[in-house]
Design a protein that fits this description.
This protein has 14 helices and 15 strands. The chain is of the alpha/beta class. Strand 2, helix 2 and strand 3 form a beta-alpha-beta unit. The structure holds NADP nicotinamide-adenine-dinucleotide phosphate.
C-alpha cells in the first residue's frame, strides 16, 4: 500500500517506517523540519513537511500524495517534566488528537483513502474500579483527574472520530525502548516514587513491538479499538523497583498520597495508586501479533541495562550460570 505516515520522524514513526518498508509498503512520511525530513528519507520514506494543525496544508499534502492509507502518529511530548499541570503539558498533543485528527480524516475521506490508523493511549484510561486489567470493551474512566480532563477528552475524541469513520485507533501502552525515553532519568534521580501502596497498574509496550502491531493493524485490523500493550500489566510497586535495579539506581522512594498530590498533582496520584492496565488479547487474536518483548521485565533489560554505571551493572546471566549462581 502507499501509506502516508504523519509523525514519521518521531519515537514510534522512526520504528514504524522501516517495518512498513520491509513489508513492501511505499511510505510518504511527514515531519516539520528539514533536519527531521532527512531522517525520514534515510529510513527509506519520501519526506513531506507538514504542520498537522494547518488544515489547508493537510488537505493539500494528503491529496497530492494519493495514499491508500493514513497513519497518524503525531504527538508533541518532548517535555514531560511537568505532570502537575498535565493538561498544559499535553495541550499541543491534545490539539493534534482533536483538530489534527479531524483535519486528517477530512482529507483522507476526500482523497478516497481506504485505511486509517491513529495513535491513542491505553494505560490509566480505563475505569478505576473492578479488575486490574481491562479489555477494549470495558468502560473508560468517567471522571479522569481534574488536571488531565482536556488530555483525556482529546484521546476520547480521537477514539470516537477514528472508529466512526471506519478506522483503527491503537491504544498503545507506555512507550519505552529509545535512548531518549522520559522514564529512566527520573527513576535514576529517585524522582519517581512509589505512591501510597503503589497499586496503580501500568501497561507498557516496547517501541519495536508497538510498530509491529501498527503494521498488522494497517494490514488486517478491523475498524475499532485495539490495546497495544505487553503481556504483563503491573502495579508501580512491582515495575518501578525492577527498573531502578536495571538502571543501576537506588530503589525508589515511597511517598504518601497527600504529599504526591501536593508535589505532582492528582493525575500522578491516580496513575500511581488506582489506574488500571489493559489486555492485549484482542490484538494477539485478531492481528496475529507476536511480541519480541512480552514483558517489560526483559524489555527494560534490553533497552536500558547497558546504560547502568559499570559498577552497578547486573552480572551477565550467562556468566552467573557458569559460576552456578543462576536458576
Ligand atoms: N504511548 C506513549 O507512552 C507515548 C506516546 C507518545 C509519545 N511518547 C513519548 O514521548 C517522548 C516525546 O515524544 P514526542 O511526541 O515529543 O516526540 P516524538 O515521538 O519524537 O515525535 C512526534 C512526531 O510528531 C510530529 N509532530 C509534532 N508536532 C506536529 C505537528 N504540529 N504537525 C505534524 N507533526 C507533528 C513530530 O515531527 P518533528 O520530528 O518534525 O517534530 C514527530 O514526527 C518520546 O520518548 C515518546 O516515546 C510516549
Amino acid at each position: 500500500m502507499r501509506v502516508f505516515v504523519v509523525g514519521a520522524s518521531g519515537a514510534i514513526g522512526t520504528r514504524l517506517v522501516p517495518q512498513l518498508i520491509d513489508r513492501g509498503h511505499e511510505v510518504i512520511g511527514t515531519s516539520r523540519s528539514p533536519e527531521s525530513a532527512k531522517r525520514v528519507r534515510a529510513l527509506g520514506a519520501r519526506p513531506v513537511l507538514l504542520d498537522l494543525l494547518d488544515p489547508d496544508a493537510v488537505r493539500k499534502a494528503v491529496l497530492a500524495a494519493e495514499p491508500e492509507a493514513v497513519i497518524h502518529e503525531a504527538t508533541a511530548l518532548s517535555d514531560l517534566s511537568d505532570f502537575k499541570h498535565f493538561d498544559r503539558t499535553f495541550h499541543q498533543t491534545s490539539r493534534l488528537r482533536t483538530e489534527g485528527t479531524d483535519a486528517l480524516l477530512g482529507a483522507a475521506r476526500e482523497a478516497g483513502v481506504r485505511r486509517f490508523v491513529a495513535q491513542s493511549y491505553a494505560s490509566a484510561r480505563y475505569s478505576r474500579d473492578g479488575a486490574p486489567v481491562k479489555s477494549e470493551d470495558d468502560p473508560l474512566d468517567p471522571a479522569p483527574a481534574p488536571n488531565a480532563r482536556e488530555a483525556f477528552a482529546a484521546m476520547r475524541h480521537l477514539d470516537e472520530a477514528v472508529t466512526k469513520a471506519g478506522g483503527v485507533a491503537l491504544r498503545y501502552g507506555a512507550f519505552y525502548g529509545a535512548s531518549n525515553d522520559g522514564l529512566p532519568d527520573p527513576v535514576r534521580k529517585r524522582q519517581f516514587p512509589i505512591i501510597g501502596d503503589g497499586g496503580g497498574v501500568t501497561s507498557f509496550i516496547h517501541l519495536h513491538d508497538a510498530a509491529a502491531a501498527t503494521v498488522l493493524a494497517l494490514e488486517r485490523g478491523e475498524p475499532g479499538i485495539y490495546n497495544i500493550v505487553d503481556d504483563e500489566p503491573a502495579p508501580a510497586r512491582e515495575w518501578l523497583p525492577v527498573l531502578a535495579e536495571v538502571l543501576g539506581a537506588k530503589p525508589p522512594r515511597r511517598v504518601p498520597r497527600w504529599l504526591a498530590r501536593v508535589l505532582a498533582g492528582e493525575f500522578v496520584v491516580v496513575m500511581g495508586t488506582e489506574s488500571r492496565g489493559a489486555s492485549n488479547a484482542k490484538a494477539k487474536r485478531e492481528l496475529g501479533w507476536e511480541l519480541r518483548y512480552p514483558s517489560w521485565r526483559e524489555g527494560f533489560r534490553a533497552a536500558y541495562a547497558a546504560t547502568a554505571p559499570a559498577e552497578r551493572r547486573e552480572p551477565d546471566p550467562a556468566a552467573r550460570a557458569v559460576k552456578g549462581e543462576a536458576g
